[in-house]
Each structure stands twice: as C-alpha cells, then as structure tokens.
Amino acid sequence: MKSLSETAFSMLDLVPIRDQGTVSEALNNAVDVARHVERLGFTRYWLAEHHNMDGIASSATSVLIGHIAGKTAHIRVGSGGVMLPNHPPLVIAEQFGTLASLYPGRIDLGLGRAPGADHATMRALRRDRLMGDGEDFPEQVAELEMLLGPRRPQQTLLAVPGEGTRVPIWLLGSSLFSARLAAEKGLPYAFASHFAPRYLHDALRIYRQNFRPSAILDEPYAMIGVPLIAAPTDEEADYLATTAFQRVLALIRGESLKQKPPVERMTGLWLPHEQEAVGNFFGLAVIGGPEKVRSRLEILVEQTGANEIMFTSDIYDHALRLRSLEIVAGLR
C-alpha cells in the first residue's frame, strides 16, 4: 500500500488575478510559486488553459510554460491542460516541440477534451470548425503523437520543431472518457478531482483495470487533483478558504472570477443550494492545520493509490499561499 512519503507532489496554477491586482502581478507571482515549489522538491508545475475568464491569467498556456521554464532550473513544467479541441494538433506539436527543444527533459503535455470555455468563446477559438463535444479527441491525440514521434516513411506532415521530441503526453479528465482512452493507449492519467471529485474512484478503477502496457508505461500511473489550504491552525485555514469559496460561487453566478479577500463567514453570501454546489466542488479539498492536512492526505493516498497529487491553492495573500505549499511539503 502506498504511503504519503512515496507519493509525488506537484502544483497546478491557474495564475489568479486579485480583485485589486494586475495581470503582471499574477504572472510574477506564478514565477515565484514555480521557484518555490521547485525548492520544496515538487515534481512538476502545470498551468491550465482557460479563456474569457477575467480572474485567470494562464490563457496563453504554452507562452507561459516557456516563461516559467526559463525562470526555473529543473522542475518539470507543462500544461494541465491544453484543451486540444481548441487547437490544430500541428500547432500544439510545434509549440511543445519548441519548448522541449529549449528545455530538454522538462516539458509535459497534458491534454483535455473539453473546450474550457463558453460557447461564444468556443466559436472565437474554432472559427473554421463545427462546434462539437470532443468526439474526435482520440484521433487528435493520435495525430499529435505521430507529429511528436520519429518521422515515418512517406510522412508529409511534419512538426518542426516537434518531430522526434516525444514530449510526454498525459490525458486529463473529469469524467470516464479519458480514463478509458489513457488505459487503451498506455498513457499517464490525471483526474480533475480538484473541481469534479464525483467520478474519481470510478475513473481510477477503469484506468487501472483496462490499462495496456506501452512504450511509455509498463504499468498505470495516476495523478489526482487536490485543492489545498494549509495554515498553522485549522481555524486560519478555514478563514483563508473563503477566498476559494467566493470564487466558485462567482463562477456559479457568472460573476467576476477575480480573487476576493477572505471573510470571517460565508453566511449571508450564498443561498443553500449554492452552498451545496460549492461544497460538491470542494469535496476532495484538504483544508486545515498540519495534522489535519496530513491525516486527510494519508486517507486520500490510501483510498486512491495515487502515484502523484497535484495541488491547487487558491489563497488571496501571496505569502500565505507560499506558506501553504511549504506546510504540505514538510509533511512527507
């Protein structure tokens, strides 16, 4: 049975923009976070593709990956994920092939099949394509694998840079579709339990039961997303977590997603059904002082057998966000 000390820790950053902050501040903070978790021994630092969201500064994901990789020394940097239906596979192969050529052995390519945006944004991103639900995602992944692999005889479509770089591909998902595809292709799999924990156990079961060894992996490798708010005391962690609660509440209501400072209590800020929806979103969250965080993580590792935990940490004060990550790193 896997223990917490055997589980890799990583970071997923949405590059949050504060209500009184700027995009430049958010981007500078992202560099600071990446350097911080590198010093703490985290395995990787990933960035997520989101569009048309005023509180998230990671929309130009590949550009920011290059910036972060250039400001760090050895931590793996990648996408968690690139929403492949938004892009031609050739473009992604060229972008990540360039990144892999600049930073050999340090770039990950996590792929999702959801658009990560509303319908209007989807139309803006995919002007020459019919709007769909990612039905051609397996074909897109196969094309991307071909473009990043060695040149084949009579191959006419080339990614330069990209060809032969074999950038590691991860499949990401919040449902069961990508679990099956990752198992079939023998790829590492990351489940988005940091915002959609409902199908976590089903997805991991399907992935492991159907896994086919490949040239990439001999056995399954699973990562789970976990929201983290760690502080010296449970009471302070509960207080700091209200920033994250307010942001998800704003998402539900279609309001601004800029970070808001924590509040003493959420009573009066949400309706009962909204409180329930936010609670479902954070069903796997780890919020508390060191001992509570350790206990919660040990249970998660025991129940899921995850090889790796990827933390999100939505805390308003940048210094306290760094402290939260330092606390969890000290628990192994």
Automatic annotation (TrEMBL):
It comes from the Bacteria. GO terms for molecular function: oxidoreductase activity, acting on paired donors, with incorporation or reduction of molecular oxygen. Residues 9-307 form the Luciferase-like domain. InterPro entries: Bact_Lucif_Oxidored, CmoO-like, Luciferase-like_dom, Luciferase-like_sf. SUPFAM superfamilies: Bacterial luciferase-like. One of its GO terms (cellular component) is cytosol. To bacterial alkanal monooxygenase alpha and beta chains. PANTHER family: LUCIFERASE-LIKE MONOOXYGENASE. This is Luciferase-like monooxygenase. It comes from Pseudomonas knackmussii (strain DSM 6978 / CCUG 54928 / LMG 23759 / B13).
